[in-house]
Amino acid sequence: MSKRLASLRDTAKQAGAWMRSTLFGSPPDDFELLQSTSRTAILTTGAIYLIFHLIATLFWPEIFSPSLWAASLIMAAAVIISLSLLEKTFFLSQAVWFIGLASATLYTYTIYDRPEIALLFWLFPLMAEMMYGLRGAIVVESLTIVLITNMWRIPWVAPLPPDYDLILVMGSLAMTGLGWGM
Question: Which uninterrupted H or E stretch holds 165?
């Protein structure tokens, strides 16, 4: 029984050491790969948004034409500033990118009053996992949950429908698990 207890204790110590190094260890040594991945994700997301913007404003100008331009300016600023900061200060670049995405998402949700737009918050932890790893995903996940659960406190943001915040939080947590599993 003593050997089994010692074995369990060693396994628990190894698991704890692994969790500490994964969550709180030093950042990865290969920042060039992180920068390249982040650059690709930012450019791809910006390009997809640009295509969406063009299609929406050309085919449905009565709905999207004047109001979508502000969100496009937010996205353009986020892309340009993030890419310009990427080589110099990686973490600030990431912060600017996710703040820009959150601002554009909140703006479009408020302008069009469609709660489905808020489902874009599900992609934040998945994108953070791809751009920085588990630690980045946990930070972005935590901030996303804080934002989702406190959206009703932001004066210019329309409140979510009942229980929609729970759906957003659970979906965001699921995306973090999905991203971590990749």
Answer: helix 164-181
Lookup result for tokens 């969100």: 71
- Count CB neighbours of 96 within 10 A: 21
Q: How far apart are CA 65 and CA 106, in angstroms?
A: 18
Q: Which long-range contacts (CB under 8 A, 24 or more apart) does 28-31 make?
A: 28/133, 31/90
C-alpha dist (Å) from residue 97 to 48, 103, 146, 160, 170: 15, 10, 18, 24, 23
Residue 23 or residue 141, greater confidence:
141
pLDDT one-digit tens code per residue, 111-143: 998 899 999 999 898 888 888 877 888 888 999
Q: Number of C-alpha atoms within 13 angstroms, CB side, residue 61?
A: 1
98-118 burial, b at 16+ Cβ within 10 Å, e below that, comes to bebbbbbbbbbbeebeebebb
